[in-house]
Amino acid sequence: MVAYNVENLFDLDGISLYDDYKPVMYGPSELESKLEVITDTLKKIGGITGPEIILFQEIEVDRTPEKILSATDELLRELKLKGMGPYYHKLGYNPKDSPKDWPAVHCLTLSKFPITHSRLHSIERARPILETTINVKGKDFTIFNNHWKSGASSPEME
18, 20, 57, 158 — which has fewest CB within 10 A? Predict the structure, then answer.
């Protein structure tokens, strides 16, 4: 199992809660470079087909799904093109929620084993935690994928 903070993997629609990911600052070459580093790193860790379970953090929540591929879809496409997986996956936000309730970035859990259950745990003033249950050779295995927002917590909350 690998936990991997991809450090703000964003799509190319220019619609973002962060100013750094507008077309003048972040374009196709930046996205391609990030995807290449991610896939190369995962192959070094997990071999030609990649690790069995991957917990990604800091992938942009797609605010324009009808426009272009989301960062999540770009990543899944790139993994498949590089011969990695196949992977089951769960998003760290609920696309059916109102966009005003979405975080800027989310976690993504990938597994070569079947995912039998998942749920989100909402946290006040922080990103949701993605709980995923994976069936590994007949045994359920539950993992939690989260990414604490820098400066969001307080000593009392911790």
Answer: 158
How far apart CA 82 and CA 73 sit, in angstroms, is: 14
Helix, strand or coil for residue 42? helix
| pLDDT of amino acid 156 | 55
Q: Tell me, what's the pLDDT at 158?
A: 47
In this prediction, residue 20 carries a pLDDT of 81
**How far, rounded to the nearest angstrom, does the alpha carbon of residue 43 sit from its chain's CA centroid?**
17
Give the global pTM.
Answer: 0.91
Instruction: Tokens 């799904």: give the residue.
Output: 65
C-alpha separations of 78 from 13, 67, 117, 125, 148 in Å? 18, 19, 25, 32, 26
In sequence order, which residues have a C-beta less than 8 Å from that of residue 121 and are 6 or more positions away? 128, 129, 131
Cis check: omega of the bond before 86, within 30 degrees of 0: yes
69, burial (CB in 10 Å: exposed 0-12, middle 13-18, buried 19+): middle
pLDDT at residue number 150: 67
Burial class (CB in 10 A: 0-12, 13-18, 19+), 126: middle
Phi, psi of 111 (to 5 degrees): -150, 135
Task: Give pLDDT < 50 ranges for the chain.
Answer: 157-158
